[in-house]
Amino acid sequence: xxxILTEEELSKFSGMIDNARKVVVCAHVSPDGDAIGSTxxxxxxxxxKGKQVMVVVPxxxxxxxxxxxxxxxxxxxxxxxxxxxxxxxxxxxxxxxDLNDSKRMMEMExxxxxxxxxxxxxxxxxxxxxxxxxxxSRPDMCASAEVICHLLYQLGELEHxxxxxxxxxxxxxxxxxxxxTFNSNRAVVYExxxxxxxxxxxxxxxxRNVFWTYSxxxxxxxxxxLYVKMEVLPELHASIITLTNKERKMLGVKNGDTxxxxxxxxxxxxxxxxxxxxxxxxxxxxxxxxxxxxxxxPCNTMSAQFFNGGGHKNASGGRLACGMDExxxxxxxxxxxxxxxxx
Length: 343
What we know:
Elements: H1 7-19, E1 22-26, H2 33-48, E2 52-57, E3 75-76, H3 81-90, E4 93-97, H4 109-114, E5 119-123, E6 134-137, H5 144-154, H6 163-176, H7 187-197, H8 203-211, H9 216-229, E7 231-233, E8 238-243, H10 245-251, E9 273-279, E10 287-293, H11 299-306, E11 310-311, E12 315-320, H12 324-337, H13 339-342
Parallel strand pairs: 1-2, 1-4, 2-3, 4-5, 5-6, 8-9
Antiparallel strand pairs: 7-8, 9-10, 10-12, 11-12
């Protein structure tokens, strides 16, 4: 395990935690498994330390994460803005996890930044923005949950976390690595897992809870997208899949049913890049962009250049303020621009 903070930083972190009474733990818009798992693990840990803790996320998270311990207490800002804002205003400490820039909180950003209380960032994305008093950023790590594991280890508390905390951390790491199929070659990742297993987690059940709980609509959606909507560009080793809100309604698609679809074209021999475009269900005129790649193709660079986004080398996302047809043209432009890296 690694010591990720200097002694001065560790003292500062401990002091900020000790001095806090009401803590708000935040994550990014469209929270994924790492965002939900990391925030809930922190909530359980801080609650055991006697803190009043609220987890708040900008918008809805996938239904397949609703089994996680404590998930019923997560507040969705867009759903309960009038109730959440006063609680955010009362916080005397914020922990910002799994996001590197306050802009990724979208509508929740102004509410969080309006409170001058100190803020701690715990993250693993590149180029953290300067809006927190303490930044714990490790882009080399597979998930924000892994950063938390090392932090707890350095605090001498990893061996004493509860099964609920360990379950949330393992699920977060598993989700952000595609069940440990990418960004997970470092041996210390499995040292973290060993510690979590010693806490009594059921890793097999966690896997089933995330990956084997598809709805009938999800199964039919998968077939529809792969057979009808997937466009393969064999000469460029890339693919594009699109999904409109009209199609969502037609197929009865629910929140989270599209999770993992973007990875599927990469199972095609020789495929290097997969792009999934879906109309935003909460913001009209916005198309969400998900990118996945293999080997050394830089999704994050493409996303930043063309899709107002970013992320990791092999897994990134962005957003386009346009219709689907224009979004597809933008993706084609991006793919052609990176043809030299795809061929």
